[in-house]
Amino acid sequence: MSLLSVENLTITFGGLTAVSDVNMQIGDHQLIGLIGPNGAGKTTLFNMLTGVYKPTSGKIEVNGERIDGIKPYDITSKRISRTFQNIRLFQELTVLENVMVSFDFQAKASLFESIIHTPAQILEEEKMKQEALDILKIFSLDDKADELAKNLPYGKQRRLEIARALAAKPKLLLLDEPAAGMNPQETIELTDLIRWIKDEFKISILLIEHDMKLVMNVCEYIYVLSFGQIIAKGLPKEIQKNPQVIEAYLGKGAAK
Amino acid sequence: MQTKIKGNEKNVNINLVKKIYIKYTLTLVALAIAYGLLMFLVNQGIIDNYILRIMKQVGIFVIAALGLNLILGFTGQFTMGHAAFMSIGAYGSAIMTKNFNMPFPIALIVGVILSAILAAVIGYPILRLKGDYLAICTLGFGEIVKVLIQNVDYVGGARGISSIPTKTSFLIVFFGVALCYAILKNLIHSSKGRAIMSVREDEIAAEAMGINSTKYKMIAFIIGSSMAGLAGGLYAHFNTFIDPASFNFAKSIELITYVVLGGMGSLSGTVLGTSILIYLPEALRGLSSVFKDYRMLIYAFLLVLMMIFRPQGILGTREISVANIIKLIKGIKKLSFKDILKRKKAGE
To answer: Is residue A84 part of a domain?
Structure first.
C-alpha cells in the first residue's frame, strides 16, 4: 500500500477543467517531482491534496484513508504538510513562533490550561520551544529565532517555510516551487537540503519546481502535468527524452 | 549516567515552573501594593471622588477594549458590534440585581454568560466572513440588538432601566481589569495564542499548519465578547441608568478607537489608549476657557494627528512590561556608553 494514492482526480471551475483524471502513487521515503508548463494545474493539484480545494470527482487516499473533501487542518493531522509558491509566513510573528504554530495541533493543553498556565502546560510550552529551536538549527535559523519573520531575507524566508512545514511532522511534504527566486548558489544548497531532509526525517517529498536542474538532480520519479493531465511519468532520464514532454514545453516540432 | 541526565532535566523543569510561579506571585503582590497605594491616596484626599469616578470609568472601558483587542488586534477580525455585547451584559446583570435581587457578583456572571452564549450563536455563522463583510455584518447585529431591546417592554424599552443599585466599587473594577488582562496575557503567550495570531497573519497558511481557523476565531470572539459583557454589567451598576442608546454604534466605534490608538495587538497599549482617550476630554476641561469650549474638537484633532504620524497606535504590537523596561534601560546604557567612547575618540 502506498503512502499517497490519487485516483482519477478531477476538478472543474465553472466550465474549465483545471485538473482531469490524474492518477498518482507515492510510496514511503520517495522524492517525486511534479513538473509542467505554467498553468498546467500543478498548484491546483497541490491545493486538492491539502484540502484547499474540494475535488469535483476522484479519490485521494493516505495510507488507505480517504482525505478528499476534508478540511486543510485535518489533512495536516493526517501527516501531510506543505509550503506555498508565494511565501506565506506569519509575518508579524517571530521566526520561533512561526515554527511553534505547527505544534499547536499536536499540543495536549486545553484552552483552560492555556489560560491559567498549569505546570503541565508550562512544561509542554518549554518542550515545544526546544523542539522548534532544534528544527531551526537544522535550517541554521536558530540565531534569528527572535526576529520577525518579515525581516528575514528572501532565501531564509523560503527555508523558514520548509522548517515550519516540517514541524508539523509530516510523512509527506509538499514543496511548491521552493527554489523560485533563488540564485544558483542557493539552489545548490537547497538541493542538498531537500535530499538531506528526506533521509533524515524519513519522509516522502512531492516537489513542484521549474528549475529542471534541481528536479532532474534530486527526484527519483517525475510526473509531468500539462493542461490538467498527466502526459508522462517516469525516471528523470526517461522524462528528458519523452517527446510529449518536449512538445509540451517547447511546442510541436521541437522533439524532432 | 542516563538517569542522572534525566534527573537534571527534571530539576531544570521544576525550576522553570517555580520561576514562572514566583513571577506570578510577585505580580499579585505588586498589584495588591498598587491597589493599597491608590486607596491610601484616596483616603488622604489626594485623589478626589471626581478622579476616582473617572478611574472607574476607565477601568470599565479597559475591560471592554481588552476584549475587543483580542478579536480585532490579535485575531484580526473586524467587528463593529462590540457595544452590543456590553448592552447584553448590562441589561442581563441589571435585571438580575433589580428584579431578582441577586447578589452583584452572580448578576455579573449571568451577564457574562449571556454575552458568551450570544457570541457563540452569532459568531458561528458570521465568522466565516472576512474583512469588510464581517464588519458590516457585526454592525447590523449591533443595531438588531439595540432595536430589539428598544421594543421589549420588560427591559424598559427606549426608556431604559433606571435606579439600578450602585454596586460597582473601585476594588471590583480593579480586580476585573487585572483578571481580564491576566487571562489575555496568558492566552496570548500559549500555543493557543500563537494559533490565534497565525489566523490573523494568514488564514490559509494557518490552516495548512493544522490550525482550525474557525475554532480559534470563535474562541477569541467568545472570550472577547464575554469581557464586553462584564464591562457592561459593571457599567450598569456604575452609571445606575442604562438605555439602548448607551450602547449604540457610536459606542462600538469609540471602543475601536481605544484599541487602535493604543496599538492593535498590545494589551498594555489598550490600557494606555483607553486611559488617555477617556481622561483627555476631562483634562482639557480644566485647562482654560478656550480648551473648555473646543475640547471635543481638540480631542478629535489629536486623534487625526495620531493616525497620521503613528498609524500603528501608541505601542504598536509592543508591550510595557518589567522585562521590556529593563531591556530598554540596558539598551540606553549601552548606547550612551558607545556614544561617550565615540565622543572621546572624536575629541582626541
So the answer is: no
Question: Is B266 in a helix, a strand, or coil?
Answer: coil
Q: Which domain holds residue B30?
A: 1-47
User: In total, how many domains does chain B have?
Assistant: 3
Residues A161 and A198 grouped into a single domain: no
pLDDT tens, residue by residue, A141-181: 999 999 999 999 988 999 999 999 999 999 999 999 998 88
Which of A88, A97, A111 has its CB closest to that of B194? A97
- pTM value is 0.90
A137 and A29 in a common domain: no
**Interchain CB contact of A107 with B (< 8 Å):** yes
Residue with cell 458590534: B81
pLDDT digits over A35-46, tens only?
Answer: 998 888 999 999
Range B16-21 contact pairs with CB under 8 angstroms and sequence separation of 24 or more: B16/A122, B16/A123, B16/A126, B17/A119, B17/A122, B17/A123, B20/A117, B20/A122
> Considering A123, A142, A167, which residue would you say is the last residue of a domain?
A167
Q: Are B279 and B54 in contact (CB under 8 A)?
A: yes
ipTM of the complex: 0.90
Verify whether the Cβ–Cβ distance B209 to A93 is below 8 Å. Answer: no
Query: Residue A234 carries which DSSP code?
Result: E
- Tell me whether residues A93 and B198 touch, CB distance under 8 A: yes
Residue B10 at interface with chain A, using a CB cutoff of 8 Å: no
A38: closest CA of chain B, how far (Å): 22
CA angle A10, A12, A18 (to 5 degrees): 75
| pLDDT tens-digit map of A192-248 | 999 999 998 999 999 999 888 889 989 999 999 999 999 999 999 998 888 888 888
Same domain for A63 and A190, yes or no, is yes
Interface test with chain B among A75, A87, A116, A117, by most B beta carbons within 10 Å: A117
Grid coordinates in use for B106? 452572580
Chain B contact present for A227, CB below 8 A: no
> For the residues B162-167, what does the mean pLDDT come to?
90
Chain A residues within an 8 Å CB radius of B20: 117, 122
Does residue B179 sit in the same domain as residue B277?
A: yes
B13 & B112 share domain? no
Chain A, nearest residue to B18 by Cα: A119
- Look up the CATH number of the domain holding residue A68: 3.40.50.300
Give the minimum alpha-carbon distance from A185 to chain B in angstroms, rounded to a whole number.
28
How many distinct structural domains can be found in chain A? 2
- Identify the domain containing residue A2 by its residue range: 1-79+170-256
Q: A122 with A9, same domain? A: no
How much is the average pLDDT of B146-169? 90
Looking at the structure, do residues A163 and A176 belong to the same domain, yes or no?
Answer: no
Average pLDDT on B302-326 reads 84
Domain boundary among A132, A167, A202: A167
User: Distance (Å, rounded) from C-alpha B130 to C-alpha B82?
Assistant: 17
For B219, which DSSP code? Answer: H
